[in-house]
Amino acid sequence: MSQEAAFTSQRVLLNSGTEVGPATIYVSDGKVTRIEREYRPEGAALDAGSRLLMPGVVDGHVHINQPGRTQWEGVVTASHAAAAGGVTTIIDMPLNCIPSTVTVDAYQQKRDSFQDGMWVDVGTWGGVVPGNAGDLVAMLDAGARGFKCFLCDSGVDEFPPVNEDQLRLAMAELKKRNGRLLFHAEMDTGAS
Question: Is the distance from CB of 147 to CB of 126 less than 8 angstroms?
């Protein structure tokens, strides 16, 4: 167990976000262990004074587009914009980068490309495309938070949609590690 750290302010966002008041938040091993509704600056790891102390926002759907399409948005602009808006964690989507994040090698290329310029915490989604079911468990082992697929055209050639059989195969692989799967459920039914 690590030593408990205290974070304090005269203005802490409490409860459902409707209450702001003095408080000290105690953290151990990365988890909040208790909150005292008193401003206690003595010995605090962070004394925010009169500045607002609040939880960071997590954005679970970000397209960083790196490597390959940084002219759309790269790690520097994505992470700087997130930090400026109070977002402390971004989860990057697997498409729009080249290569798309659909193999362990592509996953590692993406993670390596994030080494310089990242201002916030980052997680990454892997992608499910036709023929990559055998890569899914390895991508989970490498750190993917889960996977995304399309049942319709994704808008980029590098990330084709899966059909029902391919989706079932991917789900069977992900079940081995309790992996998450997000998908665009739109299907082309031929209706006009």
Answer: yes
Contact between 69 and 37 under an 8 Å Cβ cutoff? The reply is no
- Tokens for 176, please give them: 């081995």
Burial of 41 (0-12, 13-18, 19+ CB in 10 A): middle
Q: Which residue has the tokens 């205290």?
A: 6
For 125-157, the pLDDT digits (tens) are: 999 999 999 999 999 999 999 999 999 888 888
Nearest to 7 by CA among 71, 51, 65: 51
Quick one: tokens of 37?
A: 């509704």
Pairing verdict, β 19-28 and 31-36: antiparallel
CA atoms of 99 and 154, how far apart (whole Å):
15
Nearest Cα residue to 1 out of 30, 24, 26: 30
pTM over 0.70: yes
Count of CA atoms in the C-beta half-sphere (13 A) of 83: 12
DSSP state of 114: T
